[in-house]
């Protein structure tokens, strides 16, 4: 690890506090040693999402980057089994050779955390369980993990699941591991379900809509039989201070007009069916009289890449929030966001990404109260210099905390794996 | 099963009286004649009357019952519609059977958030029926969907014939209200696509009633596809049919359903519903595709070509909805059709890698000869889920034991070639002793620790899913060497 990178981490550590296990047995032996000597450890893959969650104060860091091989890829069985530290880029490059993909669209926080694309590792994606725009159609990371191997907080190697889609043998621990931010298991192996890549994709853009009509159009599109695979809304941007990027310089595409807001719907599938579905949508949404445009294959791909990599927040110095809500609540909630913030809707209106300039802890907690009231949750994805620390990065209530604490103890009784990364006491 | 608590059985009258303080008198059944209908579930080879049957009417009552039982160390077995095929709702002589039959209402149909909130006793099919007038449906469709309850679907993570494209219950669930053994009521998930924190909803789905009792479910509904078409394809050999399945997937086509039946079942089901199946074929595929019309036409054409390339002997494409449903009628009647072939049948449920299908069927044929028991095979070919139906006569001495051994050998073979013990029926009591085939000591211990974390005294549905060594050893299913078992530290429930 380079000195500069190390300095960027919340807690600077000496290089001798880093351990680089070469295989699963090493991971197990190291954790057994730390378990015996009560040494808390931080787990990282490539470090791409290390700044997420609460800052850790661990004596040791276990870096899984050397576990980076594809173990088995059987395209006709629709799975790929990889070592936990394998880069997502390596996996996707391999899948492309057979026109397959990780359908959940791995998320990329590289742009706003470090200024450049960085999908990180398989384990990082699983640990965070944050999925891209296709989520509402195909499910999240958790719906694409068929099985795993890993080491629990006692240093024991455990496994769950398998390589097949239909499997109800024992508890589905793959689900529990997804989104656990490395607090239950040090992953060593992951089996992902893979799916064929769509032949083509195009994007229908409706210009200059207000949030109410955009939310309605997205809702109608998701609810139609046209099988859309993405639905986003970028509101018209006001001249705001404190932001490094804007829609115009982020989405520079030949066929994309910049006339106020952008409501975009993605249609993927066979070449012939896409045009028919776009025509259907235009009719069903009654939008022929509105300003619309269509992004063809290549531009469409670039557009959605920029959505899933959150390029709009590139090099941001502000707080980044992720708000997941029932889609019916999106308009009301968007009204309640400060007009000093930038936001956009994803997942057809079920997800709001917010970049918040000069967000105070009180404002954050006020947003959280509103979000929880409507049945959603908010996560502080990135802190800012203005608000470098919040007590509760994630949202949880007392009874779920108690259950989660018991689950944590069953995997990691001495709380040595990423202690406090999600919640104080877990 | 776990040792019977004789002291508790002796205290039955007192327990009945206490339960009647929590719920209405008429919702507590305790006479032999009243409890007899509940002595078994869909795995009718196993029977045991419960001590008491209770029918709570709301979540608070469930919470109070569980809390009382937890304090008094009384075992509780939850039960939905009792259609499970692995004995997951099999009562114990000293247990209270907690039936969710009175939780039978759909609470909210929320088209805006594309979900339905239902009580757990609502049947799977009635969710689709409640939303179909607006063109929506609930995707998972187990064969028992007319009778099985949605709460049971969550407990077992039920699948169906369309899981290849639309997933199983766990992929179609937004939220649940659950009650833990200490009486704690908790809401997991809601009406959002993802939840934060540990995915407890994912954990309880498929946990077979061992971790909590489900009292409310929120499921995702989908818009019905514009067009659905099915192809009925016959093959002269099982190998060709298996290769065709792999070839369809390898060509980037994900059908909404892809089912296979062998010759024995083609004949049995065709006799049963006159579905027009190719009776001379050794194997038959139903390949269903959905989407917009143009896409479906295009895909059907591609499937047609792939089938021809793989030496199909017969292809029919559904011309209309009536014919498509007729294609399915035989497949959906596979289990009852077996009733025509033998007095009893035993349905197995392993999942295998698709490419190993021919190999597994060859092994099943070998075992069929070895045990001298006929087998018919239904197979969710798209997702590798195999249902061999072993036919036997329960009146013959030791026939059930012989059948179970045969079934166990099939499942062991599934695991050996990279598959799993159960794809959708659950482990229950049926496959409990086979868990050691798939998991080692560490794996099982970790799962048991999770159980203990949520149900400290192991009172909720004990004796299911995880092996009881004494029984394993008695039945010779676990190797005991010099008096030591392979997994000496697995606790007994």
List the helices and strands and how they pair.
The complex is a heterodimer of chains A (426) and B (493).
Chain A: H1 3-8, E1 18-19, H2 24-36, E2 41-44, E3 60-63, E4 70-74, E5 79-83, H3 88-96, E6 100-101, H4 110-114, H5 122-128, H6 135-138, E7 145-152, E8 157-161, H7 173-177, E9 185-193, E10 195-196, E11 200-207, H8 211-222, E12 228-234, H9 247-250, E13 262-269, H10 271-285, E14 292-295, H11 297-308, E15 319-324, H12 330-336, E16 342-346, E17 351-356, H13 361-373, E18 377-382, H14 398-411
Parallel strand pairs in A: 1-3, 2-3
Antiparallel strand pairs in A: 4-5, 5-9, 6-10, 7-8, 7-9, 11-13, 11-14, 12-13, 15-17, 15-18, 16-17
Chain B: H1 6-10, H2 12-22, E1 28-29, H3 32-35, E2 52-54, H4 59-71, E3 75-79, E4 95-99, E5 106-110, E6 115-118, H5 124-131, E7 136-137, H6 150-156, H7 163-166, E8 173-179, E9 185-189, H8 200-204, E10 213-220, E11 222-223, E12 227-235, H9 238-250, E13 257-262, H10 263-273, E14 283-291, H11 293-309, E15 312-317, H12 321-332, H13 334-338, E16 344-347, E17 350-351, H14 357-371, E18 375-380, E19 385-392, H15 399-416, H16 435-438, H17 441-454, H18 469-474, E20 480-481, E21 484-485
Parallel strand pairs in B: 2-4, 3-4
Antiparallel strand pairs in B: 1-2, 5-6, 6-10, 7-11, 8-9, 8-10, 12-14, 12-15, 13-14, 13-18, 16-19, 17-19, 18-19, 20-21
Q: Could you explain the architecture of this structure?
A:
The complex is a heterodimer of chains A (426) and B (493). Chain A is globular and about 70 Å long. Chain A is 30% helix and 23% strand. Chain A starts with a helix and ends in a 15-residue tail after the last helix. Chain A has 426 residues and is an alpha+beta fold. Chain A has helices at residues 3-8, 24-36, 88-96, 110-114, 122-128, 135-138, 173-177, 211-222, 247-250, 271-285, 297-308, 330-336, 361-373, 398-411, and strands spanning 18-19, 41-44, 60-63, 70-74, 79-83, 100-101, 145-152, 157-161, 185-193, 195-196, 200-207, 228-234, 262-269, 292-295, 319-324, 342-346, 351-356, 377-382. With 493 residues, chain B is an alpha+beta fold. Chain B folds into four domains: 6-99, Uridine Diphospho-n-acetylenolpyruvylglucosamine Reductase, domain 2 (2-Layer Sandwich); 106-223, Uridine Diphospho-n-acetylenolpyruvylglucosamine Reductase, domain 3 (2-Layer Sandwich); 225-430, FAD-linked oxidases, C-terminal domain (Vanillyl-alcohol Oxidase, Chain A, domain 3), CATH 3.40.462.10; 441-485, no CATH class. The interface between A and B is large, with 85 and 88 residues.
């Amino acid at each position: 690890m380079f000195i500069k990178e190390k300095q960027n981490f919340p807690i600077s550590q000496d290089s001798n506090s880093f351990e680089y296990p070469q295989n699963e047995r090493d991971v197990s032996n190291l954790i057994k040693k730390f378990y015996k000597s009560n040494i808390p450890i931080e787990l990282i893959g490539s470090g791409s999402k290390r700044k997420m969650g609460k800052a850790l104060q661990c004596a040791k860091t276990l870096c899984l980057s050397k576990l980076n091989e594809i173990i088995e890829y059987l395209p006709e069985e629709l799975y790929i089994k990889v070592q936990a530290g394998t880069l997502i880029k390596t996996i996707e490059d391999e899948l492309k050779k057979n026109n397959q993909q990780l359908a959940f669209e791995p998320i990329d926080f590289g742009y706003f955390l470090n200024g450049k694309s960085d999908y990180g590792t398989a384990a990082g994606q699983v640990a965070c369980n944050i999925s891209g725009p296709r989520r509402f159609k195909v499910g999240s990371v958790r719906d694409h993990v068929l099985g795993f191997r890993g080491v629990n907080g006692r240093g024991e190697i455990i496994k769950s699941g398998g390589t097949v889609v239909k499997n109800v043998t024992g508890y589905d621990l793959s689900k529990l591991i997804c989104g656990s931010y490395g607090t239950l298991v040090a992953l060593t192996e992951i089996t992902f379900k893979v799916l064929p890549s769509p032949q083509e994709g195009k994007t229908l853009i409706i210009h200059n809509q207000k949030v109410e009509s955009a939310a309605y159009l997205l809702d109608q599109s998701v609810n139609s039989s046209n099988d859309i695979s993405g639905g986003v809304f970028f509101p018209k941007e006001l001249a705001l201070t404190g932001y490094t990027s804007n829609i115009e310089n982020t989405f520079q595409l030949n066929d994309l007009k910049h006339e106020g807001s952008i409501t975009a719907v993605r249609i993927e599938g066979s070449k012939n069916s896409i045009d028919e579905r776009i025509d259907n949508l235009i009719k069903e949404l009654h939008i022929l009289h509105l300003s619309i445009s269509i992004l063809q294959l290549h531009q469409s791909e670039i557009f959605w890449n920029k959505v899933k990599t959150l390029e709009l927040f590139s090099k941001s110095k502000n707080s980044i929030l992720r708000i997941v809500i029932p889609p019916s609540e999106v308009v009301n909630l968007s009204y309640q966001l400060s007009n000093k913030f930038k936001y956009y809707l994803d997942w057809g209106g079920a997800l709001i990404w917010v970049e918040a300039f000069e967000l105070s802890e009180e404002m954050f907690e006020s947003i959280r109260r509103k979000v929880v009231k409507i049945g959603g949750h908010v996560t502080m994805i990135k802190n800012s210099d203005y608000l470098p620390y919040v007590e509760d990065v994630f949202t949880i209530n007392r009874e779920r905390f108690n259950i989660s604490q018991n689950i944590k103890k069953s995997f990691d009784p001495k709380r040595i794996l990423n202690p406090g990364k999600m919640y104080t006491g877990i | 099963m776990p040792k019977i608590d004789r002291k508790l059985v002796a205290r039955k009258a007192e327990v009945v009286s206490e339960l009647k303080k929590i719920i209405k008198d008429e919702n507590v059944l305790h006479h032999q004649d009243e409890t007899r209908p509940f002595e078994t579930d869909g795995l009718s080879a196993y029977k045991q009357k419960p001590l008491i049957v209770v029918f709570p009417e709301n979540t608070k009552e469930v919470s109070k019952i569980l809390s009382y039982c937890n304090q008094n160390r009384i075992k509780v077995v939850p039960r939905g519609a009792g259609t499970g095929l692995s004995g997951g709702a099999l009562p114990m002589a000293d247990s209270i059977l907690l039936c969710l039959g009175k939780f039978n209402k759909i609470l909210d149909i929320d088209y805006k958030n594309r979900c339905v909130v239902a009580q757990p006793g609502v049947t799977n099919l009635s969710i689709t029926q409640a939303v179909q007038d607006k063109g929506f449906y609930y995707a998972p469709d187990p064969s028992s969907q007319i009778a099985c309850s949605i709460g049971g679907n969550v407990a077992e993570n039920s699948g169906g014939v369309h899981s290849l494209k639309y997933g199983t219950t766990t992929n179609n669930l937004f939220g649940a209200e659950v009650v833990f053994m200490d009486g704690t009521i908790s809401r997991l998930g809601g009406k959002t696509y993802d939840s934060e924190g540990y995915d407890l909803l994912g954990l309880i789905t498929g946990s077979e009633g061992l971790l909590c009792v489900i009292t409310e479910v929120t499921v995702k509904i989908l818009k019905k596809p514009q067009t659905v078409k099915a192809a009925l394809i016959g093959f002269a050999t099982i190998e060709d049919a298996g290769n065709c399945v792999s070839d369809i997937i390898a060509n980037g086509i994900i059908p909404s359903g892809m089912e296979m039946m062998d010759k024995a079942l083609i004949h049995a089901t065709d006799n049963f519903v006159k579905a027009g199946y190719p009776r001379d074929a050794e194997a038959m595929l139903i390949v269903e595709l959905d989407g917009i019309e143009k896409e479906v036409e295009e895909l059907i054409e591609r499937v047609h070509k792939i089938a021809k390339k793989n030496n199909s002997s017969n292809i029919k494409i559904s011309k209309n909805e009536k014919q498509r449903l007729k294609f399915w009628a035989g497949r959906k009647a596979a289990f009852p059709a077996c009733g025509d072939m033998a007095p009893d049948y035993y349905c197995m449920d392993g999942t295998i890698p698709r490419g190993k299908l021919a190999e597994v069927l060859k092994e099943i044929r070998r075992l069929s000869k070895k045990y001298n028991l006929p087998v018919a095979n239904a197979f969710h070919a798209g997702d590798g889920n195999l249902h061999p139906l072993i036919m036997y006569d329960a009146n013959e001495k030791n026939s059930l034991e012989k059948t179970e051994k045969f079934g166990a050998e099939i499942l062991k073979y599934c695991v050996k070639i990279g598959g799993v013990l159960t794809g959708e029926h659950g482990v229950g009591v049926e496959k409990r002793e086979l868990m050691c085939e798939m998991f080692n000591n560490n794996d099982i211990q970790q799962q048991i620790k999770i159980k203990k974390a949520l149900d400290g005294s192991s009172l909720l549905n004990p004796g299911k899913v995880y092996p009881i060594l004494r029984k394993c050893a008695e039945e010779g299913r676990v190797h005991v060497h010099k008096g030591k078992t392979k997994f000496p530290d697995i606790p007994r429930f």
